[in-house]
Amino acid sequence: MVTVSQQPNFKRIQSEIEREVEMTLEGDNLWNREDQLRSRLKDQNSRVLIILDDVWEDLHDLEKLGIPRGSNHNHRCRVTLMTCLRDVCENMEAQKIMEVGTLPEKEAQILFRQKASNLVDNPSLFDIAKDVAKECKGLPFAIITVAGELKQKTKPSWEDALKQLCDAKTRNIPGVHSKVYKF
């Protein structure tokens, strides 16, 4: 699993894949590294699932990363894209698109409690946690991100987070790509 992010760094992505498939890419030349990685991923004796998480734009050509593309080959390498933007999947010609919508309030609360592990140790956070989770509007990405940030934080941090969520103008949230706002 590799996080791509809003500004992909192809060398870092290659290096993370390299580490996971237990190989060493020689040199700094992206094209040379791409050939080496592609060769390894096409190996008939292995099965590899590459999960590209947090993809914001069409990566144009997975081949440039060294990831074999298409279904007309015999290798056992598969790629899964995780993105908030359906267009990315369509532009990259994904074979199957599975959408994850918003969670019902009860499921959102459960996910939030799972990701914010300090709730078990601090019952005084239960009420504020419920309000914070509700402000995430059932969006799994928001729930996981906010809960992860608040994990092991004190009550004042939780109160501050709730205030920021309640006061947030959807166009001014740091670190959130503008394309998300249309959701």
Question: Could you explain the architecture of this structure?
Answer:
It contains seven helices and three strands. The chain has two domains: 2-91, P-loop containing nucleotide triphosphate hydrolases (Rossmann fold); 105-182, Helicase, Ruva Protein, domain 3. The protein has helices spanning 10-20, 30-41, 86-91, 105-115, 126-135, 140-150, 155-167, and strands at 2-5, 48-55, 77-81. The protein starts with a strand and ends in a 16-residue tail after the last helix. It is elongated. The chain has a three-stranded parallel sheet. It has 183 residues and is mainly alpha-helical. Residues 171-175 and 179-183 have low confidence and may be disordered. The relative contact order is 0.10.
